[in-house]
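S.,

As promised, the D-xylitol-5-phosphate run. Input:
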Amino acid sequence: MKTPIIAPSLLSANFLEIGKDVDMINNSEADWLHLDVMDGRFVPNISFGFPVISAVTKVCKKVNDVHLMIEEPEKYAEAFAKAGANVLTVHIEACRHLHRNIQQIKTLGMKAGVALNPHTSVSQLENIIADIDLVLVMSVNPGFGGQHFIERTYEKIRQAKALIDASGSKALIEVDGGVTMDNCKAIVEAGADVLVAGNTVFSAGNPADMIRALKHGA
Ligand code: DX5
Ligand code: ZN
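Predicted complex:
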């Protein structure tokens, strides 16, 4: 079984001591840092924006993986590039001109990801899969950490894997929401390359140990 990329989600960090949590991630076996941006319109929650992301990316030694849960992401792609995003993922449900949005992200020098809400079919990616670097399969409804993994996601991961293989795309599959020690192995077996984990990591007694356990337990 392949070793997955682990992307702890900053959403569950202690925001009063955010630097300590970034240090912990820097010194852990995490590969990426997942940064969840919410606008109160695309999702019913508001998280954090440019001041926090710029401060974090200056000290973060991992890949800065920014997940935009916002309307009109094209308005802000350049600002996210300047804030230090390495991977920028937009929701297919928020993009009227997805192809143009993906080109914009790549032109700005970032890797481009497309996220699918739980109700969105993988087949919607058919005409964009060759152009993207990442498929983010939401395994909860976006907006909040600490929710339960939706079981139907396993089938969507398998479908995404089949689409990627059939198209010759090199896109990675990232799974986001409700990832735990109980399901991480099955998620990777279904075809996931990247596991996002917020609550599982930051509610652990030793978050760095939990990152290692997710990486090698999967
Ligand atoms: C949810 C976010 C997730 C969230 C995952 O809208 O996209 O990245 O932080 O949190 P857990 O791992 O707690 O489900
Ligand atoms: Zn996320």
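The two ends are 8 Å apart (CA to CA). The pocket of D-xylitol-5-phosphate (ligand 1) is lined by residues 9, 11-12, 34, 36, 67, 140, 142-147, 176-179, 196-200 (CB under 6 Å).

- D.
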